[in-house]
Amino acid sequence: MKQVSIIGSTGSIGVNTLRVIEAHPEELSIVALAARRNAELLLEQAKQFRPKLVCLFEAEEARWLEKRLKRLGIRTVTGEEGLIAASTIASADEVVFAMAGARGLKPILAAVQAGKIVAIANKEPLVMAGELLRKEAIRRNAKLIPIDSEHSGLWQCLEGRAKETIKKLILTASGGPFFGRRIDFGKVTVRQALRHPRWKMGPKITVDSATLMNKGLEVIEATHLFDVSLDQVDVVIHPEAVVHALVEFVDGAQLAQLGITDMRLPIQYALSYPMRFQNSVPSLNLTRIKKFHFFKPDLKRFPCLALGYEAKRRGGTMPVVLNAANEIAVYKFLAGTLAFSKIPKLIEQVMNRHRPVRQATLSQILQADEWARREAEVYE
Ligand code: MG
Fold first, then answer.
1. Is domain 315-380 in CATH 1.10.10.10, yes or no?
2. CA of 169 to the centre of ligand 1 (A)
3. Residue 277 CA to ligand 1 centre (angstroms)
4. What is the pLDDT of residues 141-157, one digit of tens each?
């Protein structure tokens, strides 16, 4: 029986992770759950899955929850300290990180330092501190494993292969809601940007898919997870979103990973690895899909993808700045105070003001993150 903690259990990845765990009661159980502020859903989850520990980040809601969980013998914790406790709880074998944004970094680092199997759905911490996390993982005998569907695909294609055999990693992108459409990016509404054609996800990542920043971040994520150089990572647009990723080997052979667009698949693999569990997810039916399409990404129309490459090329803390400026730009867009077309402009401007720090420590990474957020906040 594998004991699992979920950090971010009330979001879309968290809820899907619980569905996978619910479907495999013989193999998986829950020891800790953490969420930001959705106390009611967290209470329901705790009643069903009976963890030892529950963390609600917001202190006021946590007091409400504590009263209700006490009689069930479940301990409630709060704040950053609580998040760390849920991420490092001794009885957990594997910790699933599914919180949106940069806030996940400290708890992930703590889980790595506690030697856990760390399954990462939120790419931001890897973009910010991939080097640091990988070094620590080696030192503490922890494992970093991907839940992001493209990286899960790469991981499955790469299983058991020596690093020297890799020529290229190819990530596919659905292209988001605006691929191939003539639309004025200055006038895109929040509703249009949130209408993703293939995946149902949280608002931040859905906007990132519309700008292609999601793929820019994923390129950086792939360099850290698989220890490859930037020019070994390619992106192709694949609107059907059935082929999640491909690996080209030095002999020219390519392996691809295919699957329906259901996050339960990569989540389940991250929990079952190195085994595979049965499930009730519908089979991929290729004769119904019939055709696959592949396109080169249009970097002029979607400059955020180019900015992802650029940030990694400039190196050091530049990806931290890319990520932070993007988070603020996306929240501004969602709040209606920044045009969709201004998202890449804001990010580029903040990047151009940053002098990257090499081999950054955690505190230098967090400093760069804070600096970039401040810069992005005052952008007009
Ligand atoms: Mg992805």
1. no
2. 14
3. 22
4. 999 999 999 999 999 99
